[in-house]
Protein: HTH tetR-type domain-containing protein
Amino acid sequence: MRTPNRYRYTGLSVAERKERRRVALLEAALDVLAESGVEAITVRGVCRRAELNDRYFYEHFTSCDELLGALADYGLHARLLPDLGVRLTDAGSDPAKWARAATEATLSIVDDDPRWRHLIVNMTATPALRERRDNAVSLIAQLMQSAAEELLDQNDRQAQLTSIVLASGIFEVVVRWARGVLDIDRAQLADYLVDLLVGVGNIANQER
Structure:
């Protein structure tokens, strides 16, 4: 059961109340997106779901497209990256463990909370989401490049090109899996991606 609004903000500072409303709007948008699709994302619909007055929407966003972009950022910075950081720290300098950590963190955000599947498969639906998709692929590629340079001692250009190819391909595979196009379960997909990353790393080591 939802907590009445008058109790949700008791004892909070102005900044804390504002941030809580922002998160409430993002979570509401994720709910609406999962239940009814991108077309159902409206100011009134999201605010109704968040149990907030419409004016609070414009406290944070100028449009629904901006809201969707912020939702993608929220998934990346509040969900994926913190989990990824913990997993990579535990993985240490072992390339196979690093590949497993990165793969499991990526798949977990899609699989552990089914609502995020609907965002992933709609990452080309609006200009803001397309921009976030490109940013996500670039970030994944940068992380892979850093790992290749540190763990595999690849040169900058080789690591950069390999990372871009892998990041783009893996992102598309995850999108297709999230859509249900691929007849494969999470464990099988994780094993495949880990084997792919480790295999590419082994080839790079042999060519040095």
About this structure: The CA atoms of residues 44 and 124 lie 23 Å apart.
